[in-house]
Amino acid sequence: MEGFKEAFDKIKKASHIVLISHINPDGDALGSELGMYPILKRMNKKVTVVNKTKPLPDYLDFLPNFEKVTDKLPKSYDLMISFDCGSFDRLGIEEKPPFLINFDHHVSNTRYGDINIIDPNAASTSEVIYNFAKANNIEIDKDSAICLYTALVTDTGSFQYESVNDKVFEMAAEMVRCGVKPDFVSRMLFQRDRLSRLRLLAKAYDTIELCCDGRVAFVEVTREMMEITGAIKEDTDTIVNSVRAIEPVEIAVMLREDEEGIKLSLRSKTCADVSKIAVKYGGGGHIRAAGATLKGEFDFSKVKKMLKEDLKEAVECRE
Ligand code: 5GP
Ligand code: MN
Question: Which of 97, 273, 286, 308 could form a disulfide with 80 if both were Cys (CB 3.0 to 4.6 A apart)?
Fold first, then answer.
């Protein structure tokens, strides 16, 4: 892949490196970032692992070196590496870094780095990091492998999405050879649920509305639901995925009341391109999973009306 060698040369020359991933990080963001950490430590680099979100999602607290992640940028450093982040603003920082390497797999990536290593065919950013390591003969230790494997599991919906191919399973197998216990990762990710999240699901599912011959589903999460159930933002993460599972839904849309406005999460099942819709409203993402935040005077019914035409057009696709 273009940029692998150039990026490694830049890393070799750097002394203090900042790793950073997108705000409201998911498993791929933190997993890719923390997967790189042991590699750089072994190269005797000074490394600061940053994410501007506080608190971090605690379902990822089992990732090795999770406790090293800080929301503070160091005063000085010579290289920044970003992970899984489609645009500069989603890093949550103001200042321009002295030099930036951008590792990602979002089609909509704006190539904001000095070196951009974007592979939209990769199932996860961690797959890009894995390929980077292989290309440069870098050893992956158990701590790295747990992080990279977790990123792969979370970004492929547990190996269910169409991004899953022979390379994904080869990487998974290699991670297992590096010491990952898949049952441990699964238990950490999926068997530590919170009651507040289930209570929130019950309320959110009650709002599901179908349109376009059942091809589109909306689900709402209000601030009030969050307060009543004691749920937190990350409790809303997978709601839209389970709504997409309804037959014959092709696109599921979650609308969530946030401080900054209305957060949209879009998912498609087989053929619709939801990243196009997200980009139109100032967001981005992938063909099957994308999001945006609508700032300003909006309410749920207004947003639904506004999206209807785009959604109607998008679900015209056929498998
Ligand atoms: P989610 O709906 O889970 O927040 O996000 C789904 C996908 O869309 C993720 O890959 C995420 O990075 C991307 N995404 C979500 N919100 C935004 C946004 O506001 N801007 C951009 N550029 N991408 C987003
Ligand atoms: Mn990702």
Answer: 97
Q: What is the pLDDT of residues 27-55, one digit of tens each?
A: 999 999 999 999 999 999 999 999 999 99
pLDDT, average across residues 241-268: 97
**CATH 3.10.310.30, domain 195-314, yes or no:** yes
| CATH superfamily of the 4-190 domain | inorganic pyrophosphatase (n-terminal core) (3.90.1640.10)
- Best residue among 85, 89, 106 to mutate for probing ligand 1's pocket (most ligand atoms within 8 Å of CB) is 106
Residue 204 has a pLDDT of 98
**For ligand 1, atom 20: residue with the closest CA:** 283
Q: How far is the CA of 242 from the centre of ligand 2 (A)?
A: 19
CA dist 40 → 6, 178, 245 (Å): 16, 17, 40
What is residue 308's predicted lDDT score, i.e. its pLDDT?
96
248: cis peptide before it, omega within 30°? yes
Tell whether the model's pLDDT for residue 319 goes beyond 80: no
Quote the pLDDT of residue 67: 98
66: DSSP letter: G
Asked if omega into 55 is within 30° of 0 (cis), the reply is yes
Q: How far is the CA of 240 from the centre of ligand 1 (A)?
A: 13
Q: Which atom of ligand 1 is nearest to the CA of 283?
A: 20
* pTM for this predicted structure: 0.89
* Dihedrals phi, psi of 129, to nearest 5 degrees: -65, -40
Residues of the chain within CATH 3.90.1640.10 domain(s) are: 4-190
**Residues within a 6 A CB radius of ligand 1:** 86-87, 90, 265, 283-286, 289-293
